[in-house]
Write a structure and sequence with these properties.
This protein is mainly alpha-helical and about 475 residues long. The protein contains 21 helices and 4 strands. The strands form 2 sheets. The protein has a two-stranded antiparallel sheet. It has a two-stranded antiparallel ribbon with strand order 3-4. Helix 2 runs antiparallel to helix 19. It is globular, with a radius of gyration of 24 Å.
Length: about 475
């Protein structure tokens, strides 16, 4: 038998065209530059979510009554550094999202206009800078804290929409789920990391350390991202010719002089609103737990701050693992033609939502700490399957408009981050299990509504208003007809 160099070959059928990628290094992921982009995007979301969730943990330490003892060990009093009631805490925790919601559409538009790399990197860098000065600002006035959190939200608001502008140039169609979910999972890994670590840091080094350390880490990430990542594969000096050819051929004609967004068609498209409704539903449960879980652990389950941080991280650890598995499974089912893209998106999304409805509702009635934590962990964790449905669906239905569609969707899906903490603040006044039960039931119902809407209206096919191939052919036909007529 003739011996030949071992290589990886990836073949994909796009109609009558068969594409093939060859790369000598199957295990050296850094030589596949699209995976380098995905890994650095993963760490970008990792940092951004630490910057987002840090206050949810820090606020417990900032507002708790601390025992003051004299040199002899006798208790001489109690001290609360910030005397904020529950409603004010709800306002503080939701303030980030007031800014965040305002720049979603702008982030998607800027990503398509100037490149996702710049917008994504600068959004996280500026948020990191403001995080570093948060302790000083907080001691000046609680309203200064609210203001600076709004500013952080404004700059971080561009990150989710603009990353689709990166994938529009870097992600081959049958690798979209895998690459996008790898990047998005950084959000949940960041949450897993932040909740216990922030709890430990607040207990041992003071709550201020949370903002100093993670703000600095955000700036370090920004330098790495800015140096390594390019907006387009052809601009990367280290990409192999095989990978470049594979990406360019699989994406087809992504070189466009100017992208014109069909706003009316986008805003009246049922599949677009199916994605928006799913995103809203998932974010309601996610943001409710993200901002309130440490407080629930402390109020109802009697977990102290350090333990509450570890227990609060469990749902996001499960979600990060599920997200990776679901992304690979989704691409496998599509590439092997076991399920169509539409079937994959609906199965993953609706199956996750229905399961989340059941487990979130069960958590509302279970008083045993381990049982409640288990139900919440499963409920939040199964969201990883939903993210392999709606979060990459924009790239299916309109690749060149995906960043703008993500901007539209994330604008509406940010509303839970604003509304949920405020509603929870009004419901939970006496810190009882019955009050928290209402919070969980509301989340379960919203998951159910999202599953119904997505199951009816979602699609995995490129929409007619986004099919530039047909437009280009029609334009060429019209031009030829005019030339013949002139002749």
């Amino acid at each position: 038998m003739e011996r030949r160099k071992v290589s990886e070959a990836k073949e994909t059928d796009y109609g009558s065209v068969q594409l093939k990628e060859e790369d000598e290094s199957t295990w050296c992921f850094w030589r596949k530059r699209r995976y380098v982009v995905a890994v650095l995007a993963f760490f970008g979301f990792f940092v951004s979510y630490i910057l987002r969730v840090n206050l949810s943990v820090a606020i417990v330490a900032m507002t708790e009554n601390r025992t003051i003892k004299n040199d002899a060990g006798d208790i001489i009093g109690y001290h609360q550094e910030f005397d904020w009631d529950r409603r004010l805490q709800g306002l503080i925790l939701s303030s980030f999202f007031y800014g965040y919601i305002s720049t979603q559409l702008l982030g998607g538009w800027l990503g398509a206009l100037v490149g996702g790399k710049r917008v994504f990197g600068l959004g996280i860098a500026v948020t990191a800078l403001f995080t570093i000065v948060t302790p000083q600002i907080t001691r000046c006035s609680v309203y200064f804290l609210v203001f600076i959190r709004i500013i952080e939200g404004i700059f971080e608001g561009v990150t989710y929409p603009c990353i689709h502008a990166v994938w529009a140039n870097w992600a081959p169609p049958l690798e979209r789920s895998k690459l996008a979910t790898l990047a998005f999972s950084g959000s949940f890994v960041g949450t897993v990391f932040a909740m216990p670590v922030c709890g430990i840091m607040a207990e041992r080094y003071g709550w201020e350390s949370i903002f100093y350390v993670f703000g600095a880490i955000g700036l370090i990430w920004f330098v790495s991202w800015w140096i390594v990542v390019k907006d387009k594969p052809e601009d990367d000096p280290y990409i192999s010719q095989g990978e470049l050819k594979y990406i360019k051929l699989s994406l087809g004609n992504v070189e466009r002089k100017k992208i014109v967004h069909p706003w009316k068609s986008m805003l009246t498209s049922p599949p677009v609103w199916a994605i928006v409704s799913a995103h809203f539903s998932e974010n309601w449960g996610f943001y409710t737990m993200l901002t309130q879980l440490p407080t629930y652990m402390n109020d109802v389950l009697n977990y102290k701050l350090e333990k509450a941080g570890f227990m609060s991280a469990l749902p996001y650890l499960v979600m990060a693992i599920v997200l990776q598995l679901s992304g690979h499974l989704a691409d496998y089912l599509r590439s092997e033609k076991i399920l169509t893209t539409t079937q994959v998106r609906k199965t993953f999304n609706c199956g996750a939502f229905l399961s989340q409805t059941l487990f979130m509702s069960a958590a509302a009635f279970i008083t045993n700490p381990l049982g409640a934590v288990a139900c919440l962990t499963i409920a939040v964790g199964l969201g990883g399957f939903a993210w392999s449905g709606f979060s990459v669906n924009h790239l299916d239905i309109a690749p060149q408009h995906a960043s703008v569609l993500m901007g539209i969707g994330n604008t509406i899906a940010t509303l839970p981050g604003i509304v949920s903490p405020i509603i929870t603040g009004f419901i939970v006044q006496d810190k009882t299990a019955a009050e928290w039960r209402i919070v969980f039931i509301i989340s379960g119902l919203i998951y159910l509504i999202g599953a119904i809407i997505y199951g009816i209206f979602a699609s995995g096919e490129k929409q007619p208003w986004a099919d530039d191939t047909k437009k280009e052919k029609l334009s060429a036909y019209e031009n030829t007809a005019m030339e013949i007529e002139t002749f």
